[in-house]
Every structure is written in C-alpha cells, then in structure tokens.
Amino acid sequence: MTVKRLDHVSVVVDDLASAVAFFTALGLTIEGEMPIEGPWVDRVNGLEGVQVDIVMLRTPDGHGRIELTRFRNPALFTVEPAVAPPNALGLRSIMFAVESVDHTLARLRSFGAELVGDIVQYEDLYRLCYVRGPAGIIVALAEELS
Q: pTM for the whole thing?
C-alpha cells in the first residue's frame, strides 16, 4: 500500500482570522497555529523567502484536518477568475457531513458564506448544497436523511 491516510487539505487564504472563524463555525476545532519560514519551506514550495502563518483545524470525528495558510511573503498570486465556477479545473470542493444543512448554512452565512446553487435532495439519501467559503473555495454540505 502506498497511501497510509489523507493527512490534510491546505487552503491558502488572504484573511486568516476570517477563514478560522468560518471553519470553527462549521464545527472544526483549532489544533495548532504557528508561523513557518526557513530554507526547508522555501525548498518544498519552490519559492524564495517564504513566510507563512498556518492554522491547523480538526474535524469533530478527529480524522479530517484542514490547514489554513496565509502568505506574508511572497505576496499572494491571484488567478482569474478569482472566484472560479464549479466547472473550473482543479480542486472542486471540500465536503463535510453535517447534522442539518439548514442550520449549518444559517450559521455560516454570518461568516460570509453564499449558496452556489440551491439546496437539493438526492433521492432519499441526502440533502446537499455548495457554499462559497474562504478564498472562494466551494464547501459542500451533506445531510444524511436515513
């Protein structure tokens, strides 16, 4: 076997405090935070003079983690369009199983979340929606119906 587990997903954000507030409102807890810099981080990123602040968050079940990264140096590189549509190449979304789509969405709206489309029901299995989260990423919410 090659992969032992999925360790974490990293999201680069411009406003670390707002992103942390969003994901903690979703139910994740802060596992740790620290500034990172030095030759090793330059080499692994293929950039020079990297200075970042990271916050690691853990899902309530203890298995999933998200790393929020804010670059202090070098400056953020933006891509166009900044808020990519759901059919853009690359990472599509991060999905979370939630107890209630409605309650979770109401809580996240106060942190700037906006629905991408509609809340839908997939057969008799799930209620689903996509919301736009920090840095324009799509956060999917899934409520099991059974």
A: 0.90
